[in-house]
Amino acid sequence: MDYDQQAELLKALANPTRLQIVHSLLNAGCRNVGCMERGTGVSQSCISQHLQKLKAAGVVAAERSGNEVYYRAASPEVARLVAALFQEEVSNYVL
Hints:
Elements: H1 3-13, H2 16-28, H3 33-40, H4 44-56, E1 60-65, E2 68-73, H5 76-86
Antiparallel strand pairs: 1-2
């Protein structure tokens, strides 16, 4: 067991906005910052900062398409953890 790695994952998800972003990505799949801004009511710059933290922790992955960057949940481990938090089925998530 790598307790440090697991603690970093939990720290990344411990912020309500970051948890909302990840939960939204798991429910809707790939999304850009503009879409997340409308869904959360949080500013684009704030969402970008949260996404950088999530990306550094390996929670989300990014893919560029032209001028847009699309984000998605990066691992089944994150999906299982979020599903447990919200008492949802992992099979309903987009990975």
